[in-house]
Write a structure and sequence with these properties.
Length: 248
């Protein structure tokens, strides 16, 4: 409750500063609308905003799930086999050398204007950070755990899933936090490049029609979705991994 109160206080402070900035400098609505104007637009177009927010939320959730699973599988493969590691690691580096934003038009061309291209964008953005975090966690297993497992003469597969993977849970939690934080970027960028629905699409349409207050309302909903996803994930991780100190 204390953390929630702190965030609520910070939010109210930012809203107050926003309103003061607009009032002091008498900024026009078409450049920088006041929070009151944005709130009024939220109330006027609630159904429209929620329908587009639903699409974006589904894209983020599916991209997050697919990207995290793919990153975890890649980290396990990198740990299991040196040959796979020698083949897969350069591909991981290359995937980060090419800007994801640059291939967004290609994804829209190949996968169409539907959800598939936006989900693929989210997967590409979170894939490398999740893989790197999980791989580091799997490699940094305490030596005492490994020595005990070797004494018990367990198989390499059992070593991975019963020793290394449990030891890597804190790193997996960090990777999941990173994924939740950046997954909305992929979905929205995909909607900007080519889409007929979603908050990113609505923001572009509102900007083209000089409905800046509506664009800010869509941006506010996107921020709210991102924060809710992060805090829900953080709460779930703290409940699931109570022994990990830095999660608290």
């Amino acid at each position: 409750m204390k953390k929630l109160a702190n965030w609520l206080g910070l939010f109210l402070l930012l809203i107050g500063l926003w309103q003061a900035l607009v009032s002091i400098f008498t900024l026009p609505t078409y450049l920088f609308p006041s929070p009151i104007a944005v709130f009024e637009r939220l109330l006027q177009h609630t159904d429209l905003l929620l329908s587009h927010a639903k699409v974006t939320l589904i894209e983020i959730a599916l991209g997050l799930i697919c990207g995290f699973i793919l990153g975890l599988i890649s980290a396990l493969l990198l740990t299991l086999s040196r040959r796979v590691s020698a083949f897969l690691m350069p591909l991981l580096v290359i995937s980060q050398a090419v800007p994801v934003f640059a291939i967004a038009p290609l994804l829209v061309l190949w996968l169409g204007y539907g959800m598939a291209s936006k989900i693929a964008m989210a997967v590409l953005i979170i894939y490398f950070p999740v893989t790197a975090a999980c791989y580091d966690g799997l490699r940094n297993t305490p030596q005492s755990w490994l020595q005990l497992a070797q004494t018990l003469q367990i198989s390499p597969q059992a070593m991975l899933f019963k020793v290394r993977l449990p030891a890597a849970l804190p790193a997996l939690a960090s990777g999941l936090r990173i994924a939740v934080s950046i997954a909305p970027i992929g979905a929205v960028v995909g909607e900007w490049v080519g889409s007929s629905e979603g908050l990113g699409y609505l923001m572009l349409q509102a900007n083209a029609r000089m409905q800046i207050d509506l664009m800010f309302a869509a941006l506010f909903l996107l921020l709210l979705i991102a924060l809710c996803l992060y805090f829900f994930t953080d709460y779930w991780l703290r409940r699931s991994l109570p022994w990990v100190r830095y999660i608290h």
